[in-house]
Amino acid sequence: MSENSVAHFYDGLADDYHLIYADWDTGIHRQGDALHALMGRDDASVLDCSCGIGTQAIGLALHGHDVTGTDLSARAAARAAREAAHRKVTLRTAAADMRRLPFADAQFDAVVCADNSLPHLLTEQDVHAALAEMRRVLRPAGLLLLSTRPYDDLLRNRPTSTPPQVHQPADGGERTVSFQLWHWHEDGEHYDLEHFQLLPAGGEWRVRVRRTVYWALGRDRLAGLVADAGFEDPEWRMPHETGFFQPLLIAGAGK
Q1: Taking every annotated instance into account, which residue ranges of this chain make up the domain Methyltransferase (predicted)?
Q2: Out of 47-51, 57-61, 188-192, 251-255, least confident range
């Protein structure tokens, strides 16, 4: 999966990404609350290196953190900045590849890479490049917060679809529906994802389909790659422990 095709997937999804959530504003606050609780301070300098339309970045900014957001999708990053301004918080954004972050060394107290973003990188070489960049831009004793799908369970079961998610607008407008189909590769680790959105259109349904590829990285394997990139004490924390919607890997940048 090329850099351009991943960017194309999220450029196309940028205007509708909030429809993945039953209530996106509630998601912003819940995820921001959970990540803030793990920061250990109230005024951290944070890089969200896969900010998308701002779900985690805005949530953290609402807690008073100084947040910068980057994303491979220029359209998603631009929307994140607009959504932050609408909520009267500051969020600097830019289009950037997490394997080549446009920041000086030791600039941030924390790096967030959430919502299953890292598994868009399909080789160990690319994952290592991204993790090395995240560590480079962290200050001594900085914190990495990285979330993925629960891949240990998914690798055992190899599901072929996700349940439908129904979005009901707060203003009482028409509902939309999202779901995914997964097509596993022969290696049993990579999978093609088809993302379906059903939108009401004059009494019928209009269907949008977008496609991308993921690498299902199990917890031990990803923790090993994080340690290989120079992080210290990588530890997985589960949703029932953190309140975050995905498993979170937490690691320190060291001194």
Answers
A1: 46-142
A2: 251-255
